[in-house]
Specification:
Radius of gyration: 15 Å
Number of domains: 1
Helix content: 25-40%
Structural class: alpha+beta
Distance between the termini: 46 Å
Number of helices: 4
Length: about 160
C-alpha cells in the first residue's frame, strides 16, 4: 500500500508507545485483576468488574474490527453499525491518512496475513494520533474488536 517513506517507522513507534501505555494502565488500574469486562458501545463505556461489582470504567472509541472470514481489518469510520459519536477518533485517523497519502488509513478495508498484529498496529496509530490512554481487544476467535480508552476511572 502507498505511504510516505517515514510512515513505517512512525507506525512502529506508535506500537511501542501503545505497549508502554498498556503496561502503565495494567500497573495503575490492575487491568489483569478483573475477571469480567462488559462493553456498551452505545454508552461508550468498557466496565471491568469482579463478582458483579464494577471496579473500573473506561470511556471508549471504536478503532475497528478484524474478520478471519473476510481476512481483513475494517475501520470504525467505515462501519455504519457503530454510533457516529463512537467513531470520531477513527475519523481523525482517516483525515491524517488523507493529508499524508497513507492508504491503509484511508481505505475502508486493509488486508494482512496477521490480522491480530494489523489490528494492534492500526489501533496504535489511532492511539498516537488522538493521544488516547491506551487500547483493549475483547476476546473473539472469529476476529477482533479494537477499542481505544479515552478516559479511565475507578467505579464508585
Amino acid at each position: 500500500m502507498k505511504h510516505p517513506d517515514w510512515y513505517p517507522d512512525w507506525r512502529h513507534d506508535a506500537v511501542h508507545q501503545l505497549q508502554d501505555k498498556i503496561d502503565r494502565l495494567k500497573s495503575e488500574f490492575r487491568l489483569n485483576d478483573w475477571p469480567r469486562y462488559d462493553y456498551d458501545i452505545d454508552a461508550g463505556t468498557l466496565t471491568f468488574s469482579e463478582n458483579g461489582v464494577p471496579k473500573l470504567i473506561a470511556e471508549i472509541q471504536v478503532a475497528g474490527t478484524t474478520s478471519v472470514k473476510a481476512g481483513d481489518w475494517l475501520w470504525a469510520w467505515a462501519n455504519s453499525h457503530w454510533p457516529e459519536d463512537r467513531v470520531t477518533d477513527s475519523e481523525i485517523v482517516r483525515a491524517f491518512g488523507q493529508e499524508h497519502g497513507i492508504c491503509e488509513l484511508t481505505h475502508e478495508n486493509v488486508e494482512d496475513d496477521d490480522l491480530n498484529a494489523l489490528g494492534w498496529a492500526l489501533t496504535a496509530v489511532m492511539v498516537r494520533l488522538t493521544d488516547a490512554l491506551g487500547a483493549y481487544r475483547p476476546r473473539d476467535d472469529d476476529g477482533g474488536l479494537f477499542l481505544v480508552y479515552k478516559s479511565m476511572a475507578w467505579a464508585g
